């Protein structure tokens, strides 16, 4: 038997995927590899299609270049290369350029294949690494998680529909013929209403209505609906929020495709984070709400491990905050009387972007009609104080910057709010830029949606000049990704000298800022970063590839942040200790940061004409 | 007759030295000893691995502990091998038999010229001949390189660890025969690279 060399084994066993494989795998690798000293002079001997090898960098640093000579990635200690061709059998197109010569471990194809056969995880690691190279692979949807599925996948096809002039009897007959509990009322393929068997009971039998009357007399007019490409999660949220059991499903052209029922969803449901939202909407007292809110962290933990689309986690948490807020407003009105006039409760920042994490704090405000009186303002001051206070008790911390409806500056009429926005746009000081970053991500939560709608359309019409965009682009470039000169991760230190990487401030935030700028330029009034990116696909500000890259980076960083947030509580919020990362994760992280850096530079060039 | 054989030998060595570095096969050997005196000290452990076509083949690695060591004395401080570990070792005959096979048609590589006298002595004791093509000493290569750069040679500047440091090779624990053999092999590759600067290295350049 070949003896293993302690130094080699100790190195190998620390690398992914060996760190997760039985020791025998590291032993096999350590006793079957060859060591070469890779230099600029001899590099042409390696990475050749006639001799395929797996390479693991032990020391030195190298650039992996594409056939056209562009740097794909920088390779350093612990990085693998050569595996794509081993997996696919395709000819090698990439080349090496040696920055610092050093030692590289080399494994032959037959030994690589042996490890692939023996250890499923080994194979998975490289298949995944291959798929992840440059993060450009398009996002695979996880079909296993029910609430992430698209509605079109779970709904029963074929809309059972009648025209509004059909009689109630026709409807009852059609429903029993198809064995359904509801019917869509439509004309010229446009949705007009919904009739359910509960309507037949409550609106026909109980009221002794003529069964030959037209359906239009009993239908629920302009009902809530969902689109086929929405996620099941959104449908459930809507059903629970409005306590309805039937949702018509429409295609992009608003043509009804079928009906989604709560039973359809129950069939899909295996675990239930959404149930909690439902319970929150039903809660009758503040005490009940607090009990439910206390379940959130635990629930998130069990849920997060089963979800592949991490944007859903942010959505879920924001959904929970929305529900808590809406319920608190309702409870306040029950106890202190209805609001004296219309109002819109709005949220800003991460809650608006639906990117909340367990550590996010409150960012909210109140929009009041222009004719509001001083007395009415007092009512809202009390209501806001109550809601913000109770939210804090439910675990959503008070905003350190005091961006809360309980602060008088954040309770204003549409005119007052517009004046504030205008101020920031025309006098783009650093402070104003900071405000823009928070307040331009806004979303309606509770109250009058008409009031909110009117306000946002006015906000959209505020003229934004080049100077404003230049200021934003400059501001974005004052922040930088933690990459050093040679694409190495730059770590920060806290007072206790723990080294860490701030994934939020130095990653996710930059993407959010970039996307916000492009969205404002393209007049897209959505708050969610992924939705903004989706919308940016249809205008020519950014190329398709750039949009996909930003999306993938955003997803990757969010996922990483979330995984580490759940596992390690001792680090500063949103930060990770790079020592906890596997070599693959480090590798991907560098790639993600590199892409962000490029997008930042492109943005400066486009909007600030490179003047930094 | 004698002259002819002598001439053949010299000519062969001359030919050998014209070979390019990567055209030959090497066996890198490292020995842990009880002391430095050839007359009294004994081999405690020995390890080797082969370099073929410029690649260090870890699958060729062998490591043996010599079970018949008479007196370890103070040497375990360095190599960590104690009496109990000796028991599981192999006889000198067994070791030399394997080494003789492994060295066939290869160039012997050691860090320091001290190892060769011990191998020759063991060969004489067991009557098993070991015939490397020739010998390369990484310590001598390093000394030559340092002197040609006009650098002073301090007491410890030629140890395996300090030599490796000069080429930014990773830090290894020293004084385990197998690790030292790999460390020497890597050092040789780094030295060859540092010398070659565009031109092909011949064996002669290493001697």
UniProtKB/TrEMBL annotation, chain A:
Pfam families: CBS, DUF294, DUF294_C. GO terms for molecular function: [protein-PII] uridylyltransferase activity. The keyword Ubl conjugation does not apply. It comes from the Bacteria. Keywords: CBS domain. The keyword S-adenosyl-L-methionine does not apply. This is CBS domain-containing protein. It comes from Pseudoalteromonas caenipelagi.
UniProtKB/TrEMBL annotation, chain B:
Gene3D superfamilies: Ribonuclease H-like superfamily/Ribonuclease H. InterPro entries: Ribonucl_H (IPR013520), RNaseH-like_sf (IPR012337), RNaseH_sf (IPR036397). GO terms for cellular component: cytosol. CDD domains: DEDDh. Keywords: Exonuclease, Hydrolase, Nuclease. Signal peptide: none annotated. Residues 25-197 form the Exonuclease domain. GO terms for biological process: DNA metabolic process. One of its GO terms (molecular function) is nucleic acid binding. PANTHER family: DNA POLYMERASE III SUBUNIT EPSILON, PROTEIN NEN2. This is 3'-5' exonuclease. The lineage of its organism: Bacteria, Pseudomonadati, Pseudomonadota, Gammaproteobacteria, Alteromonadales.
């Amino acid at each position: 038997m070949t003896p293993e060399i302690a130094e080699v084994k100790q190195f190998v066993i620390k690398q992914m995927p060996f760190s997760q494989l039985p020791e025998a795998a590291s032993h096999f690798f350590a006793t079957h590899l060859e060591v070469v000293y890779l230099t600029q002079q001899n590099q042409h001997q390696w990475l050749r299609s006639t001799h395929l090898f797996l390479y693991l960098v032990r020391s030195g640093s190298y650039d992996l270049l594409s056939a056209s000579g562009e740097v794909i990635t920088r390779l350093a200690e612990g990085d693998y290369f050569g595996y794509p061709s081993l997996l696919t059998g395709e000819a090698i197109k990439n080349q090496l350029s040696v920055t610092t010569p050093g030692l590289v471990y080399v494994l032959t194809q037959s030994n690589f294949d042996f490890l692939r056969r023996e250890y499923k995880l080994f194979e998975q690691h490289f298949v995944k690494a291959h798929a992840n190279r440059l993060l450009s692979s398009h996002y695979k949807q996880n079909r296993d998680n029910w609430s992430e599925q698209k509605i079109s996948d779970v709904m029963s096809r074929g809309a059972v529909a009648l025209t509004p002039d059909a009689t109630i009897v026709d409807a009852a007959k059609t429903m029993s013929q198809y064995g359904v509990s509801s019917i869509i009322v439509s004309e010229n393929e446009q949705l007009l209403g919904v009739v359910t068997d509960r309507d037949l009971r409550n609106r026909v039998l109980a009221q002794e209505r003529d069964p030959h009357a037209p359906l239009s007399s009993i239908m629920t007019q302009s009902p809530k609906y969902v689109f086929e490409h929405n996620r099941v999660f959104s449908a459930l949220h809507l059903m629970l929020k409005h306590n309805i059991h039937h949702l018509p499903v429409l295609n992009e052209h608003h043509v009804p495709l079928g009906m989604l029922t709560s039973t359809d969803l129950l069939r899909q449901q295996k675990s239930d984070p959404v149930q909690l939202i439902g319970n929150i909407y039903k809660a009758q007292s503040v005490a009940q709400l607090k009990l439910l809110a206390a379940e959130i962290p635990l629930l998130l933990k069990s849920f997060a491990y089963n979800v592949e689309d991490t944007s859903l986690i942010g959505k879920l948490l924001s959904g929970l905050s929305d529900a808590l807020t809406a319920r608190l407003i309702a409870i306040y009105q029950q106890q202190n009387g209805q609001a004296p006039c219309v109002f819109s409760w709005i949220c800003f920042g991460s809650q608006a972007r639906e990117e909340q994490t367990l550590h996010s704090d409150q960012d909210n405000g109140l929009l009041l009609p222009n004719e509001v009186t001083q007395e009415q303002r007092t009512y809202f001051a009390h209501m806001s104080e109550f809601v913000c206070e109770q939210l804090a008790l439910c675990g959503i911390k008070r905003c350190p910057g005091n961006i809360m409806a309980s602060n008088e500056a954040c309770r204003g009429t549409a005119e007052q709010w517009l004046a504030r926005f205008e101020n920031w746009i025309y006098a783009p000081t650093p402070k104003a830029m900071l405000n823009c970053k928070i307040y331009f991500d806004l979303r309606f939560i509770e109250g009058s949606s008409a009031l909110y709608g009117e306000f946002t359309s006015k906000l959209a019409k505020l003229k934004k000049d080049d100077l404003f965009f230049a200021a934003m682009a400059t501001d974005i470039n004052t922040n930088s990704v933690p990459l050093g000169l040679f694409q190495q991760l730059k770590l920060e230190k806290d007072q206790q000298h723990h080294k860490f990487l701030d994934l939020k401030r130095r990653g996710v935030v930059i993407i959010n800022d970039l996307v916000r700028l492009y969205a404002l330029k393209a007049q897209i009034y959505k708050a969610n970063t992924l939705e903004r990116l989706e919308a940016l696909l249809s205008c020519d500000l950014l190329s398709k590839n750039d949009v996909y890259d930003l999306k993938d980076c955003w997803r990757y960083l969010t996922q990483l942040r979330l995984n580490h947030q759940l596992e390690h509580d001792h680090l500063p919020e949103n930060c990770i200790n790079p020592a906890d990362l596997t070599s693959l994760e480090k590798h991907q992280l560098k790639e993600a940061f590199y892409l962000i850096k490029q997008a930042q530079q492109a943005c400066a060039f486009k909007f600030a004409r490179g003047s930094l | 007759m004698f002259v002819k054989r002598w001439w053949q030998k010299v000519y062969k060595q001359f030919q050998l030295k014209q070979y390019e570095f990567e055209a030959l096969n090497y066996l890198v050997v490292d020995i842990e000893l009880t002391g430095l005196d050839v007359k009294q000290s004994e081999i405690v452990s020995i390890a080797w691995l082969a370099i073929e076509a410029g690649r260090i083949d870890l699958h060729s690695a062998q490591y043996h502990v010599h079970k018949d060591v008479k007196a370890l004395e103070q040497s375990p401080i360095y190599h960590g091998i104690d009496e109990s570990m000796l028991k599981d070792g192999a006889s000198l005959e067994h070791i030399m038999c394997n080494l003789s096979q492994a060295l066939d048609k290869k160039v012997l590589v050691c860090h320091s010229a001290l190892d060769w006298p011990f191998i020759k002595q063991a060969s004489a004791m067991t009557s098993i001949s070991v015939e490397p093509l020739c010998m390369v000493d990484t310590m001598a290569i390093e000394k030559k390189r340092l002197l040609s750069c006009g650098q002073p040679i301090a007491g410890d500047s030629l140890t395996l660890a300090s030599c490796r440091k000069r080429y930014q090779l990773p830090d290894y624990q020293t004084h385990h025969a197998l690790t030292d053999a790999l460390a020497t092999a890597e050092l040789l590759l780094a030295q060859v690279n540092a010398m070659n600067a565009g031109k092909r290295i011949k064996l002669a350049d290493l001697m």
